[in-house]
Amino acid sequence: MRVSGGIRFLPLYGLSGSGKTSAALELATHLPQCDVFTLSGDQLESRAALEAVLDERLLRTTPPEMLVAVVDQYEEAGSRPDLPKRFVETLSLIDRTEKRHATLVIWLTTTREFQTDLANATSRNTRILLSRDFELVGPPEEEWPNIIEETFEFHNHERPLADFGVLPEDVRSTALVSDSLGASIEKIGGELSEEVAALHDLSRYRVVMLWPVTDALRITRVQSFTNAREGYRLNWNAWFQQLNEEDRQQLQLDALNRARLYFDVRLVPIAAADLEPLCRDLGTLNYDFGQSYLNRFRLSHFHSVATDRWNPSSYAPLREREDSQRGQSAKQWYPTATSNPTGIGRRIAEALTALDVPAAHEKTLTSEHGRVRADVLVSEPGKKEVIVELKAFAPDQTRPSSIKDAIRTTLRRHAQFAGFLPRS
Predict the structure, then answer these.
(1) Is the model's pLDDT at 189 over the cut of 90?
(2) Residue 201, pLDDT above cutoff 80
(3) Residues 50-54: contacts with CB within 8 Å, 24+ apart?
(4) Helix axes 181-198, 144-154, angle to 10 degrees
(5) Closest among 391, 38, 3 to 226, alpha carbons compared
(6) Lowest-pLDDT range, 129-143, 222-236, 356-370?
(7) Could you tell me the pTM of the whole model?
(8) What is the structure's pLDDT at 18?
(9) Closest to 294 measured CA to CA, from 351, 252, 248, 338
(10) At residue 121, what are phi and psi to the nearest 5 degrees?
């Protein structure tokens, strides 16, 4: 269809929920040279009101190349039977005015009968009718779940529905019992509202899984399970993709996801080279840290997350030069240190304390539902306490499968701690 000048009229039919309104209003996104807007009832019934709004839309610093006026299913608002004919006659009269700007008027309807009435109303003004039986057909049902996910991500800063407590299986189940894509989206929106309201009562704790890494490959593997720029928040979809079919069937995913959200779970890689100078001679108590090593530790992503000082705008990806002297030294040291995770946790707590961050190691926390042990507990006044779980895996054990299993263990443990899962 082409509209090179004057007014053109398009009665558009589509089933309820097929996406007519969204498609019409999204024209402005894909055709930025167009000005898309909705007509009100009085603008349909009054030529003066209609001409006023059309003229007003052109009084901009940069006038649009084309106006697109949308009438959104007005027949369902109890309008008069003669309205279509009168409206089309008004469009024809306005179209005859000198040098009328290119304008497309789209009237959306859910009934074939009303579409026919709208088309018949142009019998004396057929030049303005673009099509008598234009239909918008929605996407096939098997595509609905992906479309729903993408729609909500687009409108929520690319955050997946799982971040709001709605899992992919919930989306698929809803789509299966819905009559249309629009109805599916409406139902998911209702579930989303309920989940967001329920999650307003957030935990007093944050959980940080701290994973030492020795090289770029291990950094990439750990980061692939996170949204790194968001402070290494655990990415549910990335973790879910690693689950086999048996896990997906047997795990209580809703409870695990709720624990992820409730405790704001993070998975933070830390360069072994940043730990090695702080963790020498692990058997030595009251270790004397060099200030330069503490300063480097203060600049780590872990320190920023643990102290709630993360700034996404200053995020820089974690990198480690494997050929550097400190990188080579850390690669030799770390495999020998993984046998003493308690000693590493103690040193991390002592290093945080030396940086004026109150921290303790091997701290047991109790709730009415159970207990968890923090390898390190950060307790700054006025902030959430941070439960640090140290994942001191040998470098050759930092594989996607082991990372997946470690995440599952942490989520289950804290789901039980919060009462989302019964203790086995």
Answers:
(1) no
(2) no
(3) 50/90, 50/94, 51/94, 54/94, 54/101, 54/103
(4) 50
(5) 391
(6) 129-143
(7) 0.64
(8) 76
(9) 351
(10) -65, -15
Domain boundaries, the chain: 7-135, 149-198, 205-418
**Cα-only R_g, the chain:** 30
User: Looking at residue 44, what DSSP letter applies?
Assistant: H
Confirm if 219 and 269 have CB atoms less than 8 A apart: yes
Structure tokens at 198: 């329920």
Contact 279, 347 (CB under 8 A): yes
Query: What distances in angstroms separate CA 60 from CA 55, 370, 413, one per listed residue?
Result: 10, 64, 59
For the chain, helix (H) and strand (E) counts, in that order, are 19, 12
**Is it the case that residue 240 has pLDDT exceeding 70?**
yes
> What does each C-alpha distance from 209 to 130, 161, 257, 263, 299 come to in angstroms?
60, 23, 16, 12, 18
CATH code of the domain made up of 7-135: 3.40.50.300
pLDDT tens digit sequence for 80-110:
678 888 899 999 888 887 667 889 999 999 8
Instruction: Report the distance separating Cα 379 and Cα 43, nearest Å.
Output: 61
Dihedral sign, Cα of residue 155, residue 160, residue 162, residue 166: positive
Report residue 50 as tokens: 């209609």
* Helix (H/G/I), strand (E/B), else coil: 137: coil
How many Cα atoms occupy the beta-carbon half-sphere of 370 within 13 Å?
15
Q: What is the pLDDT of residue 180?
A: 77
Over residues 173-179, mean pLDDT:
84
CB neighbours of 337 closer than 8 A, spacing ≥ 6? 276, 279, 282, 343, 344, 392
